[in-house]
Fold D,D-heptose 1,7-bisphosphate phosphatase.
Amino acid sequence: MNKAIFLDRDGVVNSYDKPVNRPKDLELYPWTAKAIKKLNNEGYKVFIVTNQGGIECGYFTEEDLDEIHQYLVATLKKDNAIIDDIEYCPHFKSDCKCRKPEAGMILKLAKKYNINLEDSFMIGDRNSDIEAGIKAKCKTIKLGSKYPKADYSVENLEDAVDIIINSEHLIGV
């Protein structure tokens, strides 16, 4: 079985000062590529799981989102940082099993890529990200303000990756 890192998108890999409705709106944090490359080098599959309710609300289309994600993957690839797959939930008001805090996106990727969820991490900047990780039985890392249910709380993705790599070497995850 594989181990994985599930990343929320907005506020984790890119700035979310304004909505990301087109590729030009996507501003990666300066540490994003380096952090993802470290995870790749440690043998983790790296996935993005992102709520994109703006589709159901009509702010952008699934085609727009695909362009944003193609741009994201291509930009990271220039720095040899690989995203293995991206799952998104297009719902906002609909009752679904994919929108975080539900674990649907994580579980779908875990099944598709034969992921051992207990050896995996969910990293997010919102409590709903952490709740999804908990429901999927992953370890969780909350970025920004602390959330008591998270296994760890740190400032940014770079700090989260350091925790993952250090804990792996200490306990042989």
The beta strands are 4-7, 45-51, 85-89, 121-124, 139-143, 152-154. The chain has one domain: 4-171. The first strand starts at residue 4 and ends at 7. The mean pLDDT is 95.
